[in-house]
Amino acid sequence: MSSRALTALKHAEVIVGYKTYVELIKNIIVNQEIISTGMTREIERGAAAIDQALSGRKVAVISSGDPGVYGMAGLILELLEKKGELNNIPVDIIPGITSATSAAARLGAPLMHDFAVISLSDLLTPWEIIEKRLEASANADFVIVLYNPASNKRNWQLKSARDIMLKYKAPSTPVGIVKNTARRQEEIYITDLENMLIYPVDMLTTVIIGNKSTKAAGGFIITPRGYTV
Amino acid sequence: MSSRALTALKHAEVIVGYKTYVELIKNIIVNQEIISTGMTREIERGAAAIDQALSGRKVAVISSGDPGVYGMAGLILELLEKKGELNNIPVDIIPGITSATSAAARLGAPLMHDFAVISLSDLLTPWEIIEKRLEASANADFVIVLYNPASNKRNWQLKSARDIMLKYKAPSTPVGIVKNTARRQEEIYITDLENMLIYPVDMLTTVIIGNKSTKAAGGFIITPRGYTV
C-alpha cells in the first residue's frame, strides 16, 4: 500500500468495501464507520459511498490492487455521472499496485517489454471480444497478463485462451502463475504454455505468458528489454 | 512509494540509480553510499550494483514507477545470469506504481477494461514490431497506453502511432496525456485522437487512448466496465 492510500484511509470518516478487503485493512480502522458488502455487490457499494459523500462525509472506497484496473474507480465515476453529481463531489483516485506488476515482481521480470492485460471474465464482456483480444495480442507477440482466469462458475476460459496462445506462441513459452499475490498462502508457479493447465487457478490468480524472447532461468521469468548484455 | 520500498531503501548500504531519481529520494538518504549515473547508462549502473552486492553489501537499485515495467529489474537479472550469479545473490523485486496506472488515476478511470502497454521508443525495438503491436491492439479495441512517446531525438513516432489508431478508432476517441505524473510541474490534458498532436510530449509523458466505449465527462476519462448503472 502507498503512503497516500494509508493517509486517505486514516482521514476517512466512512470506509466502503468488499468485506474480504475490509478484513485486510482492519489494523488501520480506528473509528471510521465501515460499510461492507459481498462480492458482485459493486453497484450497491458505489451507491452507498455516494450517498455518504453527498451527506458531507469523507468517504474512502477500497479496491484491491489498483482501483483503476477493473476496480471501483470507473463505477464510482459512472454512478456520479448518472446522478448528475460528477462535478459536485471532489473525487481523488489513489493509484495502487495492480496484480500485473505485483505478480510480475514475484516471477522475476516478465513485463520488461510491451504487454496486454486481458480479463477472462465473460460476465460483463462477450467472449467473442475477449477471444479477439487474445488472438490479436498473441499474434503481435505481446507479453500477455490474464486477470480473472477462472472462478467456481467459469472453468473453460483459461483452456480456450491457452489454445489461442498456442496458435501463435511456442509450447515452451514461459508462463508464470501467481495466486494470492503478496498475501498469505501465496502460490507461485513457473511453467510453460504446454503444461500450464495442471495448476490451480481462481479469481485471485494472475497468469503471465511470455513473448518470443521471454526465458525462464534460475527460478525467474525474464523478458529481455533488448540491451546487449 | 510503497512502505516496502521505503523500508528497503532505509536498510540499504548502497543505493544505485539514475541521478534524477536519486534526487527525488534525497530526503530518505541518511548514510547510504550513492552510485548515480546519467541516462542511457543502465548497463553500467547494473554492473556496479552487482559488484557491490557480490562484495557482500546490501544494494538497492532504484527505478521510477515500477522496476518491472521497462525498468531495471530485467536488466539486473540478465546481467546476473550472464555472470553465472543468478542464484548466488538474493534478489527481491519490489513492485511500484507504473505510469499506466498513476496517469490513469489523474485522468479518471480509462483502464477499467482490457488494455495494451506499448513503448514508442525504437532505440531497442525495431519500429516494425511496434507498428504491428499498435495495429493489433487498435484493431482489437484495447485501451492503449503509450510510454516514451517522444524524446529530443525521436519526434515522429507519436504521429505515426496516432495515424494507425485512426484506421481503427474514431477521431473523437478520448485521449489523456499526463506529463510528469504525480511530480512537480505535472500537466494533464484531456483531448481526442483528432487533436492530440498539439500537446507537448516527452520521455516523461504517458498517453492513454480509449476504446470504443470510452467517454470524456466532467473533466474525466471513463471506460465503462460493462455494469448497467
Automatic annotation (TrEMBL), chains A, B:
Residues 1-195 form the Tetrapyrrole methylase domain. GO terms for molecular function: methyltransferase activity. One of its GO terms (biological process) is cobalamin biosynthetic process. InterPro entries: 4pyrrol_Mease, 4pyrrol_Methylase_sf, 4pyrrole_Mease_sub1, 4pyrrole_Mease_sub2, Cbl_synth_CobJ/CibH_dom, Precorrin_MeTrfase. The keyword Transferase applies. Keywords: Cobalamin biosynthesis, Methyltransferase, S-adenosyl-L-methionine, Transferase. Pathway: Cofactor biosynthesis; adenosylcobalamin biosynthesis. This is Cobalt-precorrin 3 C17-methyltransferase. It comes from Desulfotruncus arcticus DSM 17038.
